[in-house]
Amino acid sequence: MTRRSIWLPVLVVGLLVPAVVLSGPRDFLLCLTGFPGTTEQAGPTVRGFLDKLGERLGWGAGAIQGDYYPDTQVGLQRIKDRKPGFAGMSLDLYLAHGEELGAQVLAKAVMHGRDKQRYHIVVAKEGGPASVEALAGKVLVPFRESARFLGNLVLDGRRALAESLDLQYESNAMSALRKVARGQATAAVVAEEIIERFDEVPVKDQLRVLAAGPWLPGPPVVALTGSSADDRTAMRTALLGLCAGDGAETCRSIRVDSFQAATDADYAEVRRLFAR
């Protein structure tokens, strides 16, 4: 009798828990290296994004569970532990681990008005290195991606050089540029949007661009092994229309202008370069 009295409430509770709690195949994690905020701080924003996405899919608000992780290793481990059906990934994470995770590209994020990105190496105008090779062994900020990403993609295959650098995290690009101007770092890696607004940089007259990397595709949204074919098709369709109408503010909240159709083929060349 005692044993039955223990297990009956457990069984009842189990029946009352919504099925969504266990719906791993429809979970959606955002693993975006170096993006601002913490998992906890981003919680309400991510919840709003997932609820809007669930509504557009016809699954309903609350049907998709997920979180945001700005640290690559933490995000990777959460994907392995939770086995979500979908993820939005930084390019570095996708290139390094997409194959082992069985990632299939569904779409890519359009941010800062473009569906691609490139990075620039900025150094001091006076006394800064005269060539990329002269960066060897020096301090570089605020790079958040891996040395492999930096060397193979931004520095045109100079992976050994990138691995010799002291890569230091910095809170934002402007802080990084000030460090370069003060001589506290030899170089900074900044994205295209910073170069486009370079006139707004207070220390711009003390800086120059040493090199620019190639254009790279934007962060992909991928389906992972647990998702069904029907859900993948539905997710792609929902993402492509998400930022229109009443979804525009939702997309702005996660710093995305829109989602654009993409496939694995759109990332084939960057995968080849990364693999060098």
What's the average pLDDT?
91
* Strand tally: 13
Shape: globular
Which structural class best describes the helix and strand composition?
A: alpha/beta
Q: What fraction strand?
A: 15-25%
Characterize the biggest β-sheet. Answer: 6 strands, mixed
Computed over alpha carbons, the radius of gyration is: 22 Å
| Spatial gap, N to C terminus | 67 Å
Could you describe the 3D structure shown?
With 276 residues, the protein is α/β, with parallel strands linked by helices. Helices cover 41% and strands 18% of the residues. It contains 11 helices and 13 strands. The protein has helices at residues 2-16, 39-57, 72-82, 91-101, 147-154, 159-164, 173-182, 192-196, 229-242, 248-253, 268-274; strands at residues 28-31, 68-69, 86-89, 104-110, 116-117, 119-124, 139-141, 166-167, 187-191, 207-212, 216-217, 220-223, 258-261. The strands form 3 sheets. It has a 6-stranded mixed β-sheet with strand order 2-1-3-12-4-13, with helices on both faces. Helix 2 (39-57) links the parallel strand 1 and strand 2 (68-69). The termini are far apart. The model is unreliable at 1-23 (pLDDT under 50).
